[in-house]
Amino acid sequence: MNWNQLISAKRWGYEHREQNEHFDARSEFQRDYDRLIFSSPFRRLQNKTQVFPLPGVVFVHNRLTHSLEVASVGRSLGRLVYNLLKKKHPNIDQEAPFLQEVGNIISAACLSHDLGNPAFGHSGEAAISTFFTDGKGLKYQEMVSKEQWADLTHFEGNANALRILTHAFNGKDPKGFALTYTSLASIVKYPCSAIDGHVKGSHHRKKYGFFDSEKGGFEQIARELGIAKDPHNPKGYMRHPLVYLVEAADDICYNIIDLEDAHHLKILSYKEVEDLLLPLCAGEDLRARLDSLADTASKVSLLRAKAINTLINGCAQLFVDREADFLEGTFDKALMDALSPEIVAHMKLISDISVQRIYNAPTVVQIEIAGFKVMNALLEEFVPAYLKTNKSMFDKKVVAMMPEQFHSERDDTYSKIRAVLDYVSGMTDVYAVDLYRKIKGISIASLD
């Protein structure tokens, strides 16, 4: 793989448009960022759970604020990587003119990395999958292919993001978001289909990155960008190198910022957070500054900023040092897992404490359980109603609740199920709960 081909301004749906190397007010990749930030799917992230329940009396991060912060870290990572690569290869601007845009590419990809996540976080993903493995959706197994069934039984938010960005929804622009090929490729962490994913010991096949419905689209992107084929899976690909930077930005944010939220909610004391973050604040003696601050939230903010800065610098330097491995497709772990042994061990400690104290906190578990029940109940109503040929009056009423944009023009079972999943997975936590209550008769819409 080579940078000149990997970073392309070719745009989905506008493949024959000439690429512009002479930037106007905005580059093509800045346009990607702007299209995402003004979009409805992105705005809906403000009412999707990150970790802690929404809404709350104390501000915590939701999917939208998380994505904005990941984009900020991603932009810094990208700019730093470009500056380091330019020192390493003085003529790189001539060899790969779009490489200077890597910060904008990474920030755009970071904005969209959680776009496909359903309501209630990973509990929502599990609910969709379980509906087909152990619920009423199991009866549809014989009506779809093995590849399609693997999609349905392992719902993946990463793959759903690619669908949202490229699928021609009814009444919407048939070109989807019309993002650049490089921005699209940069969000596909696991470039294989569901049936080829979930391979232990393989970082780029730990899950999967595109549904069967988007397989052809991703293959088109991969061919254009010259993404290497996977030598161990002839139907799959290696990662686009920039995926590692998007992944690193996400890893940095959730590992560090979840501690900040836990402190706000009094799950972790200030002393516990300081003990976890201070070792990551390399190169500075922060004791005097910390002691000068009376507000513990301000102290945590300072620690958070310094820790993130350490991790950004470490990941960027590692990426440039191992550039050849990324271009050859032989780097098979996350950047954060390849930093110094001291940092890796400390991040493992943070992860273990987060699992024990944060992700298993009663309020978090309660929303996961409730979300699981809500999502499963919605699927039990919408999937059978939408698939029935001879619909009852009730079925017709249920289907009428689905906005026209989510209806499938294709008549096969997989496409119809995928249409329902498009609708349900796009719901916010608040909307899903409200719809659940109305369908179950728990609450009734006002007639005023």
Automatic annotation (TrEMBL):
GO BP annotations listed: dGTP catabolic process
Q: What is the lineage of its organism?
A: Bacteria, Pseudomonadati, Bacteroidota, Sphingobacteriia, Sphingobacteriales
Give any GO molecular function from the UniProt entry: dGTPase activity
What name has this protein been given in UniProt? Deoxyguanosinetriphosphate triphosphohydrolase
Tell me where in this chain the HD/PDEase domain is found.
Answer: 59-264
Q: Species name for this entry?
A: Sphingobacterium zhuxiongii
Keywords for the protein's UniProt record, in alphabetical order: Hydrolase
Q: Could you tell me which PANTHER family the record lists for this protein?
A: DEOXYGUANOSINETRIPHOSPHATE TRIPHOSPHOHYDROLASE (PTHR11373:SF32), DEOXYNUCLEOSIDE TRIPHOSPHATE TRIPHOSPHOHYDROLASE (PTHR11373)
Question: Matching InterPro entries, A to Z?
Answer: dGTP_triP_hydro_central_sf (IPR023293), dGTP_triphosphohydrolase_C (IPR027432), dGTPase (IPR006261), dGTPase-like (IPR050135), HD/PDEase_dom (IPR003607), HD_domain (IPR006674), PHydrolase_assoc_dom (IPR026875)
Q: Fetch the Pfam families from UniProt.
A: HD, HD_assoc
